[in-house]
Write a structure and sequence with these properties.
The chain contains 1 helix and 12 strands; from the N terminus they run βββββαβββββββ. The chain is mainly beta. It folds into 2 domains: about 10-75, no CATH class; about 85-190, no CATH class. It has a 5-stranded antiparallel beta sheet, with no helix packed on it. It has a 5-stranded antiparallel beta sheet with strand order 11-8-7-6-12, with no helix packed on it. A two-stranded antiparallel sheet has the order 9-10. Strand 6 and strand 7 (about 135-145) form a beta hairpin. It is globular.
Length: about 200
């Protein structure tokens, strides 16, 4: 079993599923992963869990046959994506920006709204990766009728960050009231040679 992981890496679990490393080491030394696919009874796609430095799952260290232990690294890599600083400010944040930083924020917002107005998002497909308007990267966990459940893997906007799971609204955004969320509207499907 693997014990060392790299942030942004895709790994095959012992149950044959796939997990993505959101953070390779937190303050406790544990890696934080999100389940993208798999057959574990305890972890469904979209669930997150922590992996101890010895490769065991936090809270289940004694289980040598844990299905969420990592078997191998997959040869997949997400593109870097863009990073418009404005889209990483969280809701309710205290803004101490200078006048010029505010002008940059408004300029980014204008660019985003123009992109959104001219854009027709692709139809979401379960098991597909998407680049968003603000350069974030999302993965569609499932599509059931009108419900589309998405895991954010890189980037973020308006209080959502990597590791969050949300449901798409009819307009293609996470459905909140913050206009910065339009940055998470799907721009294009990414072809990664996924399973």
């Amino acid at each position: 079993m693997l014990s060392h992981v790299e942030e942004g890496g895709f790994y095959r679990t012992c149950d044959g599923g796939v997990s993505y490393v959101l953070l390779d080491e937190d303050e406790e030394g544990d890696a934080w992963l999100i389940v993208l696919s798999g057959r574990s009874e305890e972890f469904a796609p979209g669930d997150t869990y922590f992996l101890r430095p010895d490769g065991s799952v936090l809270g289940r260290e004694d289980n040598e046959a844990d299905p969420m232990r990592l078997r191998e690294r997959l040869d997949l890599q997400l593109p870097a994506g863009a990073k418009w600083q404005a889209f990483y400010k969280s809701q309710g944040a205290v803004y101490t920006a200078s006048r010029w930083e505010w002008i940059d924020l408004m300029s980014d917002m204008q660019q985003l709204l123009e992109l959104y107005a001219e854009h027709s998002p692709p139809v979401p497909e379960a098991g597909a990766f998407y680049l968003t308007l603000n350069g974030s990267i999302a993965y569609v966990l499932e599509v059931e009728d009108e419900d589309v459940h998405v895991a954010l893997l890189k980037g973020g906007a308006a209080g959502l960050s990597a590791g969050d799971v949300y449901r798409l609204a009819e307009d293609g955004s996470p459905g909140g009231f913050n206009p910065l969320e339009f940055g998470l509207v799907f721009h294009e499907k990414l072809e990664l040679g996924w399973e």
